[in-house]
Chromosome partitioning protein ParB
Amino acid sequence: MAAFFCVFFLAGTAAAEPVCSAKLEVGTRCVATLASLRPTQPAVGLMRVEDEAASLAGLSPDALEKRLKKRRVPLVAGPDGALYLVDRHHQSRALLRLGQREVPARLVGRLDKATTFWNDMQARHWAWLRDAAGRPLPPEKLPATLAELPDDPWRSLAGYAEDAGFVGKSGDGYFAEFVWAEWLVTRLPAPPTRDSLDDDLATVKRLICVVPTAKLPGEPGRACAKR
């Protein structure tokens, strides 16, 4: 049923908006082919992807259309003519999981100089080039497609910690969940799973709300004030 909703949505959108391409003017709303988009981060939290897929699958066609148009995926045109996804990796991966082929998008930028492309992407906070341990990641090591993005369970845990209110959104906290994931991987004994999530979040709450940490984006969250 979820796949039907997606196809229904696209039938209406495709007729009204152009297909996304690097030739469009910046600011143009368009319909992007998910399989062609280039990731700008090395991983996703698959638990979070599963949650997003379940949420999308429960929507009516009208509600799905409204949600995806409100949360359009932002794209940057690169010097190679490719379209780079600069946010909403989890939503996009969830749509792939549901059989979606296309998604509403908006071209938010164009960077034409190949020699400085990735430096410019990072300067604009459009790319995260560090691995799960915080080591620099060469751009060529990024997955080529959304379907190839591996799981980073620590990224999922960071997202759940934010949902629980242990950390809050920071105005300058670009890729904050990845920063928190790097911090958490050195403080918990094993990668989080669905089965361990409650215990892991209790540990995260103690670490963030009780034990002082190094300066990290968004800490402490609203839930820490209630302890």
